[in-house]
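User: Quick sanity check before I run a bigger batch. Here is a single chain. Can you write out its predicted 3D structure?
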Amino acid sequence: MSRKQHHFKGAEVSCCVKYFLFGFNIIFWLLGAAFLGIGLWAWAEKFSVFLGLIFFLELTAGILAFVFKDWIKDQLNFFINNNVKAYRDDIDLQNLIDFAQEYWSCCGAHGPNDWNLNIYFNCTDSNPSRERCGVPFSCCVKDPAEDVLNTQCGYDVRLQGELDQQKYIYTKGCVGQFEKWLQDNLIIVAGIFVGIALLQIFGICLAQNLVSDIRAVKANW
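Assistant: Done. Predicted structure follows.
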């Protein structure tokens, strides 16, 4: 009986910390579903170690992204050009490219002529497509007066000179526009990553606190 009383009067696991930590990590599990398998192991064995590992990996990824920014730029260019080639082959891919070109007001990886990589839009004489020497509608400069989307606005547009093209389509490439977007929003992007990093550090501290509470309770048994 005295042993039981000593246990309840001794160190106890903080309920607030325990449940807050549980909810905190559920959020990160939802954001990082790819880590679920590792997370189940980590929950049972070393949870604070798992959070520390994620933080370290993200920090490493951020440093590598800065050091290898030219390589990342080349990979982005390769990715866009490959998707330009397959534009009509996959509706989801097509929607992704259209969204990117509309959002960043761009056309192709480096410019409209990148659409020569696509069999439907290239300017070769042997191309029978009606879209020959054109670009997708998502490259077109939007006319606020138009209520209905003109999906044929990019037809034959690359037969014109570059100055004339600028009246109808975006002539800047998406790689450059994406870089500009990052620079313009650098503080916001950096703030988001710093905020996530601080939340993870906070989670590591909570996990360590929970581990200490559990060890203290076990020591009193």
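Residues 1-10, 40-46 have pLDDT under 50 and may be disordered.

User: Great, the batch can go ahead then.
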